[in-house]
Structure formats: C-alpha cells, structure tokens
C-alpha cells in the first residue's frame, strides 16, 4: 500500500455537459485529494504525446480530434492506491462494461465519449502528469490525508 499520484482528466464532453462538479466530487468523496487542477485546451502535439501508446490504432485520430475539440479539466489526484482506485471510480473504458455506480456507467453511453481519463500505472501517471503540470503546480495535501483519510 502506498500513496500514489495520478492524472485525471474531465475530457471535453464532461466539460461541455456540465459534469465537472459531479465527477470531481466522486474522487473527493472516496477520500482522494486534489493536488493540482487546471482548465486547458490541448493542441494536437500535446494530445498525440498524451495518447502516444495508441498511435497507429484505428481510433487514434478521432481520439486526438476529440480531446483537442474543447477545454478539459486536468487534475492531479493523490491518495492510498489512487491509480487503481480512481480507475475503479471511472469504470471500464467501454461504458457498456463499466460497473454500475461508476462515472462511465452513470453518465456515458459510448466508448469514444467516455468523459474521463485516468492513468493506468505508476509509469503512465509520471509520464502523463509531466505533460499537464510543472513541479511547482502541485500543492501538499499530506496533512489532510493524514488527519482525515489514512489509517493511523
Ligand atoms: P482508458 O481511457 O480506459 O484508459 P484506453 O487507454 O484503452 O482506455 O483508451 C484511451 C481512450 O481511447 C478511451 O478512453 C476511449 C478511446 N478508445 C479506446 N478504445 C477505443 C475503441 N475501440 N474505439 C473508439 N475509441 C476508443
Ligand atoms: Mg488509458
């Protein structure tokens, strides 16, 4: 068990649909804390870098077009085993396979408009966070985690 930091994006569909508040609150209610947050619109270069692992796949260009189509909300989220925990809150990539009560099951119906991104491993989290944030963007929430969330 370890405190982890992960990248969560509310993608342009989530921003346009006015779902930011609902999505952010799910991570907070679970006991994860936000240590950086930024509204931004990605250019193609940064989008291709972020989704580099999918280059060459049939959906790649559509994914880049979609993620650059409007503003998104980028967040760095921290907590105990936050990488897997946040993925659980998001639900499976295809909303049809997402667990009831997850963000994707509750609010999305298609794989290409599935509202959220979350890093899938420690390596991805480090790589992706560096695309969206600089070291000086992160605040410390250690005190909040220790006081309210983590077991003594
Ligand atoms: P996740 O976002 O759950 O980590 P992923 O990394 O496999 O999923 O894919 C990144 C995004 O690409 C995903 O959120 C939606 C899109 N995508 C994945 N597979 C797709 C497919 N078969 N058709 C269309 N879009 C797809
Ligand atoms: Mg992924």
At the fold tier of CATH, the topology name is: Alpha-Beta Plaits
Secondary-structure-based class equals alpha+beta
Counted beta strands: 4
Oligomeric state as shown: single chain
User: Rough shape?
Assistant: globular
- Calculate the terminal CA-CA distance, rounded to whole Å: 13 Å
Task: Output the CATH homologous superfamily.
Answer: Nucleoside diphosphate kinase-like domain
Order of helices and strands: EHHEHHEHHEHH
Low-confidence segments:
none
Strand arrangement in the largest pleated sheet: 2-3-1-4
Count of separate DSSP helical elements: 8
How are the SSEs placed, and which strands pair?
Blueprint lengths: L2 E8 L1 H5 L3 H11 L2 E8 L3 H7 L9 H8 L4 E9 L1 H9 L12 H5 L8 E3 L3 H11 L9 H8 L3
Antiparallel strand pairs: 1-3, 1-4, 2-3
The structure holds 2'-deoxyadenosine-5'-diphosphate (DAT) and magnesium ion.
Explain what you see.
This protein has helices at 12-16, 20-30, 44-50, 60-67, 82-90, 103-107, 122-132, 142-149; strands at 3-10, 33-40, 72-80, 116-118. It has 152 residues and is an alpha+beta fold. The longest helix has 11 residues, at 20-30. The chain is globular. The protein starts with a strand and ends with a helix. Bound molecules: 2'-deoxyadenosine-5'-diphosphate and magnesium ion (MG).
Précis, in short:
With 152 residues, the chain is of the alpha+beta class. The protein has helices spanning 12-16, 20-30, 44-50, 60-67, 82-90, 103-107, 122-132, 142-149, and strands spanning 3-10, 33-40, 72-80, 116-118.
């Amino acid at each position: 068990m370890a405190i982890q930091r992960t990248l969560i994006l509310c993608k342009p569909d989530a921003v346009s649909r006015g779902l930011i508040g609902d999505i952010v609150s799910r991570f907070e209610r679970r006991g994860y804390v936000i240590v950086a947050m930024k509204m931004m619109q990605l250019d193609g270069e940064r989008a291709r870098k972020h989704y580099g692992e999918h280059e060459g796949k049939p959906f790649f260009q559509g994914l880049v077009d979609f993620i650059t189509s409007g503003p998104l909300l980028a967040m760095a989220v921290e907590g105990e085993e936050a990488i897997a925990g946040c993925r659980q809150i998001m639900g499976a990539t295809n909303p049809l396979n997402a667990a009831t009560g997850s963000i994707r099951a509750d609010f999305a119906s298609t794989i290409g408009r599935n509202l959220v991104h979350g890093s899938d491993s420690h390596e991805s989290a480090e790589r992706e966070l560096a695309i969206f944030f600089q070291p000086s963007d992160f605040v410390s929430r250690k005190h909040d985690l220790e006081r309210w969330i983590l077991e003594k």
